[in-house]
Design goal:
38% of the residues lie in helices and 18% in strands. It is of the alpha+beta class. It starts with a strand and ends in a 9-residue tail after the last strand.
Length: 405
């Protein structure tokens, strides 16, 4: 499986300008590739091969007056941008033919300098390195200061430099790992989880985990920042400053939510051999009047973390159907008592008279439906590996207990 290690970069003013040039050149090559492919399609001609595009859009383009500035950045950055466009087309055609799983993908679109995320990638032949002083030395950019929050298990063969909407820079390393090296000690405990809004999660043992509601708590600050942004003149420097202020406020909310999900998912797997959870239709729930609360909870991100950590730590994750009537069945006698409105938080079984907490009862039924009531030994354990964003290449190695980003 692949794990991504992400670290904060602190480039100085000169290095930021060099990174801006690299982002811009990579974007131009990507857009030129898309334009060349679209022109060929419009003319009913065969798509040009990647080797032909490399020669025309990079090697020959550097010799022209209009594209001579492409020589100011590492050639590896331009080649990797060309490969990104090639990969985007390959995924698009695979989606059209049905050979690629997941939602349908559209054709590659032109990139803009105003995109929220800018990235470039350096592979081994770019001769980048991590210096003895702990800096990331990139060709034609310089040695940048890095905040090493944990140790890399091996020396990676590639690095992706990312700039997000809040103006922060990150170095992303993707490493291929063997999950067998990080197995946690086996335990006989299993748990069912009922995800909700009042409580983020209710466990089958009766434990209730409150919802932090990071977005709701930050709404007042976000509202003020958005109001200041709307009052700034378009194209002015003050508007750029206000936009960064809004982006940083949203990034702070997203970072806090992600950290909460990481800590909770790791804690649950450290204590339980098997976890059962309902496969919720978050996209459908996000179209209801509860949309803001659903997005604030971040259920999809949490379930995805459970999926890859199950494989990483040798645990079991079972997803039951969202149509399983976990809130209608008595967990004591199995009697189905019918649907109930959300306002009903407690109810009494009409058959055995047991008084139930709605969420705890649903969590117990989730665990039972997943087959974890007795043992986790026979439950399916094969979630997919973590996809690296934008075709980040990996490095073979074995982790030493570090947490994935």
């Amino acid at each position: 499986m692949q794990l991504r290690y992400s670290f904060r970069l602190y480039p100085n003013a000169v290095q930021q300008a060099a990174l801006a040039r690299a982002f811009g050149c990579a974007r131009v090559v990507f857009n030129d590739t898309v334009r060349a492919r679209e022109n060929a399609r419009a003319a009913a001609e065969p798509f040009p091969k990647i080797g032909e595009l490399s020669t025309r859009l990079i090697t020959q383009a550097k010799q022209t007056r209009e594209r001579s500035w492409l020589g100011e950045v590492s050639a590896v950055v331009l080649q990797q941008s060309l490969r990104d466009a090639e990969s985007a087309y390959r995924n698009f055609f695979a989606s059209l033919t049905g050979t690629r799983k997941g939602p349908k993908l559209g054709p590659p679109r032109f990139k803009s300098r105003k995109d929220r995320r800018q990235s470039i990638r350096f592979t081994a032949n770019a001769r980048w390195k991590i210096t003895d002083a702990g800096r990331l030395d990139l060709p034609k950019i310089g040695a940048e200061k890095v905040k090493w929050s944990r140790a890399l298990p091996v020396t990676p063969s590639s690095v992706t430099v990312i700039k997000d909407a809040a103006g922060r820079f990150f170095a992303s390393f993707v490493i291929d790992t063997d999950p067998a090296t990080e197995r946690l000690p086996r335990t006989e405990n299993t748990i069912g989880i009922d995800l909700g809004l009042t409580h983020f999660a209710v466990l089958s043992d009766g434990t209730k985990i409150d919802s932090p509601r990071f977005l709701r708590r930050a709404e007042k600050k976000l509202k003020k920042a958005h109001k200041e942004l709307s009052r700034k003149q378009k194209g002015s420097k003050n508007r750029t400053k206000a936009r960064l202020k809004v982006a940083r406020a949203h990034a702070k909310v997203a970072d806090a939510r992600r950290e909460f999900h990481h800590q909770l998912s790791t804690k649950l797997f450290s204590e339980n051999q098997g976890i059962a959870v309902e496969n919720l239709s978050v996209a459908g729930l996000a179209r209801t009047r509860l949309a803001k609360s659903v997005h604030d909870a971040g259920w999809s991100q949490f379930i995805n973390m459970l999926a890859y950590k199950a494989e990483r730590y040798g645990r079991t994750l079972v997803k039951i159907s969202r149509f399983e009537p976990t809130s209608q069945i008595c967990s004591t006698c199995g009697h189905r008592d019918g649907p109930k409105p959300l306002s009903v938080r407690e109810w009494t079984c009409g058959a055995c008279g047991t008084r139930h907490d709605r969420d705890t009862n649903a969590a117990i039924n989730t665990k039972t439906a997943a087959g974890l009531a007795a043992s986790a030994c026979g439950a399916p354990v094969r979630p997919g590996a973590i996809p690296a964003q934008r075709e980040e290449t990996g490095s073979h190695g074995f982790p030493t207990g570090n947490r994935a980003a």
